[in-house]
Amino acid sequence: MSDVTFDADDVTLERVSEFVWEIPREGEMRVPARVLASEALLEEIKEDKTLEQIRNTTHLPGITKYAICMPDGHQGYGFPVGGVGAMDAEDGCISPGSVGYDINCGVRMMRTNLTYDDLNGRERELVDSLFANVPSGLGGGGIVESGVDTVDEILARGVDWALENGHAVEDDLLHCEDEGMREEADPDAVSQKAKDRGKNQIGSLGSGNHFLEVQRVTDVFDDEIGEAFGLEEDQIVVLIHCGSRGLGHQTCNDYLRKIERQHKGLLDRLPDKELAAAPAGSQLAREYYGAMNAAINFAWVNRQLIMHRTRRVFERVFDRSWEEMEMELLYDVAHNIAKKEVHDVDGEQRELYVHRKGATRAFPAGHPEVPRAYRTVGQPVIIPGSMGAGSYVLRGGERSMDLTFGSTAHGAGRLMSRTQAKNEYWGGDVQDELEGQQGIYVKAQSGATVAEEAPGVYKDVDEVVRVSDALGIGDKVARTFPVCNIKG
């Protein structure tokens, strides 16, 4: 391999600049594809179909500038996880496959004024209490089980519903993107089957890579931004990772099937049917956008209810009110989402459907869509690692708007399939090693889930964040490390 190219079987990438690699436009590609990675990460990315998938993405109608793969990229359903694609909102398309099945899968971080010493010796009590009180695992069971009328309200109003019903405080809304509500949500565009799947899952983690993790802040890299985010070393924080559960999955599935029937001509012109898209301006595009926004609201409420229940658990374990412990939302970020945004394309302001699948919005300081609390410093970005490695808090970088449509990575990114992970690891051994060697207490519904999420299954989150920071798309603010983790 030379300094200017990277060969990965049938794909050759050309180096644009440090950590920026490009698959040049050829054939039916509408734009080039870019991969943001170090050579060490490229060696891992090339092992699956990620590069082929990001190249396929460039065939989508109306895609602008380039398709982008983040440093944590890995193979997904049609569109790679870690992918960003911005399609013209007038003559482009919107693609359910490019958002993914778990609409608004995302993470939120809650601060506390507790220190690691406050928690030391209570880890087992806390992890047991969280596991007993926060629903997790496959299927039904949530903090709120309701009729479809309540689901409709949640789909329409998002976290405002939670506020009215005692599961949130006003400050929670002010520290969430869009204040926890997408106004373009259309509950009528969500099928009855999706609502039925969601009605008993409101306030539940689900399974797979979703988790609730109690962490301690080990490093603050930027004191000024750390102070603005309310973070300091040795502080206890809580990270919640989940999405829209069965409701989002069913919504994606419903619209993929509708697109297959109604827009077969467009589908036949794409290199991969899993990139299924509806033309911008079509009835189906409008319906999907309304349904997706409704599922986004549902996911925000889901994470909000889990967070508020976590406050109650801490109250019992530490015998003081959550307000005394200053258990406040730092921020909530979505990483499976499409959104109408205005971006500069070749010197022209254009409205685009920005698809982020396994990618996090990372708007810089001064951007009007950053919540007022953080507008002078930039949007908080939360990047979880594995349950045996650190996670990171970043802030939106100055170069993000130019390089990535205001986006950065969303996590460590998988190295191994779930099947492979279960062949390589035994859940009980992973739990024993984490507790014995690192003081990390893990509790899950099954050993198989722990095996699937073993630390060795993931890329090096430190390297992913190093690339983001060096590129100026997401700047390092703080690092955290697990203390307790519950999984479905």
From TrEMBL:
UniProt: Mn(2+) 1 binding residues: D102, H210
Q: Which GO terms describe its molecular function?
A: GTP binding; metal ion binding; RNA ligase (ATP) activity; RNA ligase (GTP) activity
Listed binding positions for GMP are: 209-213, 335-336, 384-387, 391, 410-413, 487
Its UniProt entry gives the catalysed reaction(s) as: a 3'-end 3'-phospho-ribonucleotide-RNA + a 5'-end dephospho-ribonucleoside-RNA + GTP = a ribonucleotidyl-ribonucleotide-RNA + GMP + diphosphate; a 3'-end 2',3'-cyclophospho-ribonucleotide-RNA + a 5'-end dephospho-ribonucleoside-RNA + GTP + H2O = a ribonucleotidyl-ribonucleotide-RNA + GMP + diphosphate + H(+)
Residues recorded as binding Mn(2+) 2, renumbered to this chain, are H241, H335
Protein transport listed as a keyword: no
EC number(s) reported in the record: 6.5.1.-
Q: Which UniProt keywords apply?
A: GTP-binding, Ligase, Manganese, Metal-binding, Nucleotide-binding
Q: State the Gene Ontology BP annotations.
A: tRNA splicing, via endonucleolytic cleavage and ligation
Span of the signal peptide: none
Q: Entry's Pfam families? A: RtcB
Identify which top EC class this enzyme belongs to.
ligase
> Key word S-adenosyl-L-methionine present in the record?
no
Family, according to the entry, reads as follows: Belongs to the RtcB family.
- What is the recorded name of this protein? tRNA-splicing ligase RtcB
Q: Which organism is it from?
A: Natrarchaeobius chitinivorans
Q: What is the lineage of its organism?
A: Archaea, Methanobacteriati, Methanobacteriota, Stenosarchaea group, Halobacteria
Q: Which gene encodes it?
A: rtcB
